[in-house]
Write a structure and sequence with these properties.
By secondary structure, the chain is α/β, with parallel strands linked by helices. The chain folds into two domains: about 70 residues; about 200 residues, Alpha/beta knot, CATH 3.40.1280.30. The chain has 15 helices and eight strands. The strands form two sheets. A six-stranded parallel sheet has the order 3-2-1-5-4-6. Strands 7-8 form a two-stranded antiparallel ribbon. Helix 6 links the parallel strand 1 and strand 2. The chain starts with a helix and ends with a helix.
């Protein structure tokens, strides 16, 4: 009996251990399966997160533009001097600026530019309303509208004549070169001012009786100069301009012995205008006065240089002897037509000199008294 009882007890213990082992094995299997399931979920989460980070890294400019747009809007609401409207291109330029002070300066420049544009638009609208009011007054006085047909006919005829002269200049006219290789020597604001002066110069040349054949040499296809010119003129108008715009240098277009580089730093004085020469003007607005840049460029290429005889003809008082591009154009056009330095140098700003040399102070005073409008508005 005792033997049987002990045997049955051993069997029950054995069964209990087997059940415990099987249960522990089953629990281990469930845990391993659960851990396998958790690992698959973790892989899925990590894979989706990596895809999201990759998509964000592929379009950082969009988020940066949004951040800068919100920054400008926040500064505008805080009363800071920033533009009310800003384009995506301007936001991209703002994104490239690293420091906060640089961003403030650029936004201030855009705000000033925007205010000038608004004031100009208001002035144009005011003039338009004044013209309309004047037309209404004439209508009431004369009982009929002012005849504008002849004015429109004259304007279209003048445009055709100017286009014909520019076309003739491209074929037979004397070349005048603008050196467009100074893009990296200027800030963005100086580059925009340069383009504005180039447009003004092109307009004066087009209206001349005997215009130059303008060459924009060194104009890079993907450069800031061409981008700004196309933006201001419009692509269609730019393509129709009677000028030669090329990425080639002037040495590749003209013989070296015919080239004369006009620079204020030259020691050679341009005594008289030579119709057989090709004069070169650096397309650069130099607010920071990088003196000698154009002269060094001409010397490196072994070109003849010359400067305008400002000291020889004018009593210079103050300011640098660097003239704007449109002033240079008007001086060269007048000199080409008349050959008279006195008439040509009338386009030098009066604030920079005290008049022409050889004129006494009493004569200057009498001339100023008699010809006040010329000195004020010339």
């Amino acid at each position: 009996m005792m033997f049987l009882r002990s045997r049955s007890l051993a069997l029950s213990c054995f069964r209990t251990s087997i059940r415990a082992f099987s249960s522990s094995r089953g629990a281990g299997k469930d845990a391993s399966e659960e851990s396998a399931l958790d690992l698959d979920a973790w892989k899925t989460v990590m894979r989706s997160q990596a895809l999201r980070e990759e998509s964000e890294s592929e379009s950082p400019s969009r988020s940066a533009l949004d951040d800068n747009r919100e920054l400008v809007e926040m500064w505008h609401q805080a009363g800071k001097f920033v533009p009310k409207n800003i384009t995506d291109e301007q936001l991209q330029d703002l994104t490239r600026l690293a420091t906060r002070s640089a961003k403030k300066k650029y936004l201030k420049f855009l705000a000033i530019k925007e205010s000038h544009k608004i004031s100009k638009k208001e002035k144009q609208e005011r003039k338009k309303s004044e013209r309309e009011a004047e037309t209404e007054n004439l209508k009431e006085e004369e009982g009929k509208l002012k005849n504008t047909f002849l004015l429109r006919f004259w304007s279209s005829s003048a445009d055709r004549v100017q286009s014909w002269r520019a076309a003739q200049a491209m074929r037979f006219g004397q070349p005048l070169v603008y050196d467009m290789s100074y893009e990296h020597h200027m800030t963005r604001r100086e580059m925009e001012n340069t383009v504005a002066q180039l447009m003004e110069s092109e307009g004066w040349n087009r209206r001349a009786a005997d215009p130059f054949h303008l060459h924009f040499c060194g104009l890079q296809p993907d450069g800031a100069y061409l981008h700004e010119l196309r933006r201001r003129y419009g692509s269609e108008t730019w393509d129709r301009l009677m000028i030669t715009a090329t990425e080639r240098t002037y040495l590749e277009v003209f013989p070296q012995q015919d080239l004369v580089y006009l620079t204020a730093d030259s020691k050679q004085v341009l005594q008289e205008f030579d119709h057989s020469k090709v004069y070169i003007i650096g397309a650069m607005v130099d607010r920071s006065i990088h003196s000698g840049v154009s002269l060094a460029n001409a010397k490196r290429l072994r070109l003849a240089t010359a400067r305008l005889p400002l000291d020889e003809h004018l009593d210079w008082e103050c300011g640098a002897k660097n003239l704007t591009l449109d002033q240079m154009m008007r001086i060269l056009i007048t000199l080409k037509h008349t050959g008279c330095w006195k008439k040509a140098l009338e386009f030098v700003p009066k604030r920079k000199h005290a008049g022409f040399t050889g004129v006494t102070k009493s004569q200057k005073k009498r001339n100023y008294t008699v010809y006040t409008p010329n000195y004020l508005f010339g």
